[in-house]
Amino acid sequence: MRVLAAMSGGVDSAVAAARMVAQGHEVTGVHLALSKNPQSYRTGARGCCSIEDSHDARRAADVLDIPFYVWDFAEEFQEQVVDDFVAEYRAGRTPNPCLRCNEKIKFAAVLDRGIALGFDAVATGHYARVVDNGSEVELHRAVDPDKDQSYVLGVLNQTQLRHSLFPLADTPKTQVREEAARLGLSVAKKPDSHDICFIPDGDTQGFLSRYLGTDEGDIVDADGVKLGIHHGSHNFTVGQRKGLDLKIPAPDGNPRYVLKIEPVNNTVVVGSREQLAVSILRGIRPTWTQHPVEGPWRGQAQYRAHGTPVDATISLQAGELVVELDEPATGIAPGQSVVVFDGDRVVGSATLAESH
């Protein structure tokens, strides 16, 4: 099988490529150039997509003795990920750029180009499992729960999954590093990436302010009483407690939290933790790993990349995903993705439009 190994420059993708070589596949490594000016992206080991990463990916390909190419996806990345990130914050929502990158770049644009060039599949270092049930393929959680990335892959459809390989599905991260060391890969001890790659200094608020400005607005309570001012509603997200800098304490002395962001009038609404609690989530633009499930059906919902899945009743109503949580949850913001599971099998995902 001709396999295109997406090599980010980290240990996971390097070992994934090595396993494809060991299995006898015809493997070609590819690294994605996601910035027209690479110096503007993160350097060092804090994030991904840095100049160092491209060098590390090439060195790994050399060790594995496979062809290696760099593909320029800077324009697509800017439009589909960076511009979308800014637009979502402008609208008062909280996006997940890594999930968006998986959906629009790594498993859409790259896969499309790879198939057009005659490759059979794309292999990545993601921690998730693809299971062939005979009629369809299913996306499942990885064996290592601490590294499981099924949440950020919940946007993939059946066609994409059929051409996706996740060689690390059954391996704990500690074993992956040990394997990299045995293979002589220099990335064996390279730290994992955690930050947003297109924000070089890690200052998300500063990055957004350069795009969206620092217009002063009101911070009010649920009754509309002004409690303070802010310098850009994009600096806040639902559930946030720190950074409000309110001079007027709550009557009960308890902390206040961001309940809602109203970008139209540049207002941030705050209230008690109890007012944050929601039990019904409505998601738009649902995607399905297999086929749409009308429901209602019993499953689990996860609304953060490293969050704990919670039991829920799930249904598809008028083209929207409706999730009724068994227990109220807090800190759920519009723009986040909700991914629904049946046990450890991913069923689908949607972008949260509202909760109540």
Automatic annotation (TrEMBL):
GO biological process, one term: tRNA wobble position uridine thiolation
InterPro entries: MnmA-like, MnmA-like_C, MnmA-like_central, MnmA-like_central_sf, Rossmann-like_a/b/a_fold
Keywords recorded for this protein, A-Z: ATP-binding, Cytoplasm, Disulfide bond, Nucleotide-binding, RNA-binding, Transferase, tRNA processing, tRNA-binding
Catalytic activity: S-sulfanyl-L-cysteinyl-[protein] + uridine(34) in tRNA + AH2 + ATP = 2-thiouridine(34) in tRNA + L-cysteinyl-[protein] + A + AMP + diphosphate + H(+)
Residues binding ATP: 6-13, 32, 125
Chief place where the protein resides: cytoplasm
Active site per UniProt: 101 (nucleophile), 197 (cysteine persulfide intermediate)
Domain tRNA-specific 2-thiouridylase MnmA-like C-terminal, residue spans: 281-351
Alphabetized GO MF terms: ATP binding; tRNA binding; tRNA-uridine 2-sulfurtransferase activity
tRNA-specific 2-thiouridylase MnmA-like central domain mapped to chain residues: 206-272
Site (described: Interaction with tRNA): 126, 336
Protein name: tRNA-specific 2-thiouridylase MnmA
Top-level taxonomy: Bacteria, Bacillati, Actinomycetota, Actinomycetes, Propionibacteriales
Cell compartments where the protein resides: Cytoplasm
Stated family: Belongs to the MnmA/TRMU family.
Enzyme class, first EC level, given as a word: transferase
Organism: Tessaracoccus rhinocerotis
Database matches in Pfam families: tRNA_Me_trans (PF03054), tRNA_Me_trans_C (PF20258), tRNA_Me_trans_M (PF20259)
